[in-house]
């Protein structure tokens, strides 16, 4: 590799994903809530050796690509075969010395694999990541035929790294008599030595419908637990909203909003799981627009912030502390309302209550306290 090198990444994402099925081409299908193509796009975009990342997309998929990758993504329209899509990408490169060609269908690309390829390009015109074959290989369709020695066989992955000159030459002379399944075999046919570097099990290609579950399982989730606590004063002449339910009682809770102390504690617990401040940060009591507000919207706002981080609420547990009213008769309604607001099944919502044995402000009926614990999973880097 010369001193003045510039490496560009091309992600081929113009396939139709026939084998994977689904309502959108597989590269736009979501893995852990995120479009598949976004994973490798991020890997290249954040790697210091990659100057630019170009995504090859299907005709009419500009909106899908922008929605998945942001509007500043550089796209080029692909062809009817993978080879044509790569060729279109190559034609769009003006000032690169080297290129890494990668399948959008291999989402979990590590910086280590990119590093190995970039290093190999210092001495070679081409390099690819490979894995050894670990199954016995045999010929045959109905009956077992000959065993194929596997010791020197490789499973070839992407990204595949090339000097732009070598890859351009390979594409220029390709006769089109047969389809090339990858670019490495094309440059090799010209006599270019292709270096083999260590591939990765994480780079497995998503090809069939069942591969999505395997990809999903490769995403590492971080479990977060946080708690919330709140108190409101009981006063005559107020409605008593608790756990999203209007509870008949001779007093109600007072506050700037509807004062649903249970939903407030839950909201704070959820916000805590993503370190997003507390309910007052998002809905300041000084803001008149929240006067008398339905606390359901506070809870749903916290749930949306978690969803925006592609997090999943696993479980919420709520304890209401008061002498009266009795919570038992309303527990099922509260559980159902909270489950509805958070989009959870009933078995992921726990509503409990306790008295404080007539002790303290709750014991004297001056107010109601609530405490909540939420458990959430937030996706991190691939495992
Ligand atoms: N005309 C094509 C065909 C494929 N690809 C890309 O090449 C990669 C590897 O191809 P494959 O896994 O075979 O994807 P599809 O061609 O979409 O799948 P299928 O063969 O099941 O239709 C994918 O990222 C795919 O989007 C491409 O850019 N242009
Ligand atoms: C490029 C490739 O991913 C290397 O293994 C593979 O050849 C693509 O094959 P497909 O038949 O287009 O999925």
From TrEMBL:
HAMAP family: IspD, IspDF, IspF
EC annotation from Swiss-Prot or TrEMBL: 2.7.7.60, 4.6.1.12
Cofactor(s) this protein cannot do without: a divalent metal cation
GO molecular function, one term: 2-C-methyl-D-erythritol 2,4-cyclodiphosphate synthase activity
Signal peptide start-end: none
Ranges for domain 2-C-methyl-D-erythritol 2,4-cyclodiphosphate synthase: 224-376
Annotated gene: ispDF
Residues that span the membrane, as ranges: none
Name assigned to this protein: Bifunctional enzyme IspD/IspF
InterPro entries: IspD, IspD/F, IspD/TarI, ISPD_synthase_CS, MECDP_synthase, MECDP_synthase_CS, MECDP_synthase_sf, Nucleotide-diphossugar_trans
UniProt cross-references to PANTHER family, sorted A to Z: 2-C-METHYL-D-ERYTHRITOL 2,4-CYCLODIPHOSPHATE SYNTHASE, CHLOROPLASTIC (PTHR43181)
